[in-house]
Write a structure and sequence with these properties.
Length: 339
């Protein structure tokens, strides 16, 4: 099995330089770091992370915190793409990742306590931003570094984060429907305590206000088909002239599409739908789903870069905004504008 000395010899550097390069130290130039990493890959070198952690009493592992809503985690490829981006960057810098999950806020906070106390993890990436989040409060108590994917609810100027401009993304989605003649547009969400959902709603509301159109809200998870049918019947009883929906993400849009298509009366109306995240399932929908691409893998990559960087205690927080774009497919139809 190759050692760090073998890597150093092949790269033509000292063992200490090779070790620093493998850990992404900023004092090592990029050409030298790339040369060391290339040598490590050629030798199939794998650092002994456990031994390093015992020696330093600190971990080169990044804790990745998933939201409590486990149904959303395991059914939505958005989270998997973010984790993929984080893992790719961490791997290049010789760091590992470990997931923090929980079926309740209490369990999630406890698991983070264990990761900090026993795993000596000092850096975390949160894959969500939520109002009054006990996880954030606990991380502050421990005075550990954390990066949020999503706009923070509090201390935005003191918190490093990566996000899309979700207000503008919501604006673009609603305007796209207005440009196709729709005037009665519903906004479908599940939890407005999530910053990403509330920001997209604000963008939707901005377009409605600018065009003097009504805000038409629907909060529904579609956890069962029967529950979805019941919710939509109630919704259409109150809003019979709705012709289109902005859904806060693709998975919710696809659940809505399925319920609509299974009812003959609703199917014939051909409601227009637009979602967010441009998930792998968008192309499999019928019709294929128009969606706002937010590039979750890049969100993860940028968050990992911030987490791995050396930050002086007095340094200002870092904010990275990843662009979005509309991916036009076939789920939005042009109609004659209603008055």
């Amino acid at each position: 099995m190759a050692t760090i000395k073998d890597v150093a010899q092949r790269a033509g550097v000292s063992p200490s330089t090779a070790s620093r390069a493998m850990h992404g130290s900023k004092i090592i130039s990029k050409p030298t770091r790339d040369k060391v990493i290339k040598a490590a890959r050629e030798l199939n070198y794998a650092p002994d992370f456990n031994a390093q952690n015992l020696a330093t009493k600190a971990s080169n592992t990044i804790g990745v915190v998933l939201p409590v809503d486990h149904h959303e985690i395991f059914s939505n490829p958005f989270f998997l793409e973010m984790i993929r981006g984080i893992n790719e960057v961490c791997s290049k810098h010789g760091s590992m990742t470990t997931l923090a999950t929980g079926i309740s806020s209490e369990e999630l906070v406890h698991n983070i306590d264990v990761m900090i106390a026993q795993g000596h993890i000092r850096t975390f990436i949160l894959l969500y931003s939520e109002k009054d989040d006990p996880v954030v409060e606990r991380l502050k108590q421990f005075d550990v570094q954390y990066v949020v994917i999503g706009k923070p609810y509090q201390e935005i100027n003191k918190t490093s984060y990566v996000d899309n401009d979700n207000v503008q993304a919501g604006t673009d989605a609603a305007q796209y429907l207005v440009d196709h003649g729709h005037r009665r547009i519903g906004f479908l969400c599940t939890d407005l305590s999530r910053m990403v959902q509330s920001d997209r709603m604000l963008g939707y509301q901005r377009v409605m206000m600018q065009n003097q159109l009504p805000n038409i809200m629907l909060s529904e998870r579609f956890e069962t088909h029967a529950a979805g049918v019941k919710a939509l019947h109630q919704f259409f009883d109150q809003n019979p002239d709705v012709t289109a929906f902005v859904a806060v993400d693709d998975m919710l849009a696809l659940k809505l599409q399925q319920v609509l298509h299974n009812d003959p009366d609703w199917k014939v109306k051909q409601f227009s739908l637009i979602g967010f995240n441009n998930s792998i399932f968008s192309d499999l929908a019928h019709p294929m789903l128009t969606s706002i691409a937010v590039f979750p893998q890049r969100l993860g990559e940028e968050a990992a870069k911030i987490a791995l960087a050396d930050h002086p205690t007095d340094e200002l927080s870092t904010a990275v905004i990843v662009p979005h774009q509309i991916v036009r497919r076939h789920s939005v139809h042009q109609i004659k504008a209603l008055p």
